[in-house]
Amino acid sequence: MTTQPNPPVPPTAMAERLNQRLIAQFQQLQARPMPPSKLVVTGRLVRMVGMTLEVVGTQAAIGSRCQILQECLAPIEAEVVGFQQDRLFLMAIGETHGLAPNAKVVPMHGGVKVGVGAKLLGRVIDGAGQPLDDKGSIEIEQYVSLSGKKINPLSRRPIRQPLDVGIKAINNLLTLGQGQRVGLMAGTGVGKSVLLGMITRFTDADVVVVGLIGERGREVNDFVRNNLGEEGLKRAVVVATPADDPPLMRLHGAMLATAIAEYFRDQGKNVLLLMDSLTRFAQAQREIALAVGEPPASKGYPPSVFAKLPQLVERAGNGQVGGGSITAIYTVLAEGDDQADPVVDSARGVLDGHIVLSRDVADSGRYPAIDIESSVSRVMVEVVSEEQMRLARRFKRLYSAYQQNQDLIHVGAYRRGSDSLIDEAIEKHPALTQFLTQGMKERFAYEEGLKVLARVLS
Known about the structure:
Blueprint: H1 11-31, E1 43-49, E2 52-56, E3 65-69, E4 76-84, E5 87-92, E6 104-108, E7 113-116, E8 123-125, E9 142-145, E10 162-163, H2 168-173, E11 176-177, E12 181-186, H3 192-202, E13 207-213, H4 217-233, E14 236-241, H5 247-266, E15 270-276, H6 278-291, H7 303-313, E16 317-318, E17 325-333, H8 342-350, E18 353-356, H9 359-363, E19 376-377, H10 380-383, H11 386-404, H12 406-410, H13 420-436, H14 446-456
Parallel strand pairs: 8-14, 12-17, 12-18, 13-14, 13-15, 15-17
Antiparallel strand pairs: 1-2, 1-6, 2-5, 3-4, 3-6, 4-5, 7-9, 10-11, 16-17, 18-19
Helix pairs in contact: 3-4, 5-6, 6-7, 7-8, 11-13
């Protein structure tokens, strides 16, 4: 028995059937839309000179991240720091030991985000936000941009509230305001880190964020154990990027510490941001800029360094009306005790005041070694009473009169009665010096120091 073949389908009916199937498939796609897949064009590593990695075959924006993939090596994360024609200049976040030519480079879409949250309190982390202590992983509440967000200067809350830092020379002669940005300037070994530790312990703040940027690894451990202690660490976050970290990690450490302070400020907290040091941040940017070919402008510092400093500093300060505040204290290393150093001079211009530590004062045995004549708080007049301003000005006049004439006084060339101001300065000099002296574990409240100042000048 033979089967009859099926009759052929007319072309119009076949087209109609195909059209119906396409419509049905299209409706299914509309009901369940799939995210469009991003086309990733990979590149390859062709040159490595010093810290700079040169890549061809792909494109990425400045500040974005790439992954360098190579067999037998864990993925290496790098950031785009420059480009020239068809070449990208990258700088690795971590170690590059074992990297070989023609390694695969894959761009990572999206900007650099960092995790923040209340669980950061009591923790010590590195510049990438990874824990350095042995307390396990950190619970993240949200991710924010590493570069922060700008605040309209007209919407910032003005500085009107004095900040008690527990050091009478600063409290009553160089009064700081809540939301001020101030520099602590000195050469090496004059006591910047110790004074910063005193401010950390004595200042009343809801949250303390400490950025240890480019310092010795031993100092990181000492600061956490001795200056903060177990109680102080409970309300603090420490971001540590020691001197042996790559320059990009040191740069990110300062930016991460600022981003964490911004997070707590947005929660309505009064934050104390301590960064040691702003000079190491500038030096990290100098290493990066010189590595990609930017010409040096001032004592080896390229122009981008002086553009980065205000971008970092301006993120601190008071938030909008009704919000929190970030009072920031940055140590600034004056190389060779040169107060005209480019970084010192630039920092002096972008900060709201500076406290200068003198090597001569430190050598004389007085601590803290504050040079009261060279130091200034630009917001003091806005946060203290007229009576305190009068006392502070009189103190400085007497102290300066003695310092300017001390050579004549010491050799006996000055005759008492020649100048009434110098006579009074000689009489009160021991009390003035004693007021500027304070032990490392001794705390003076703001009002207590003001009473002592009035008694000294009475």
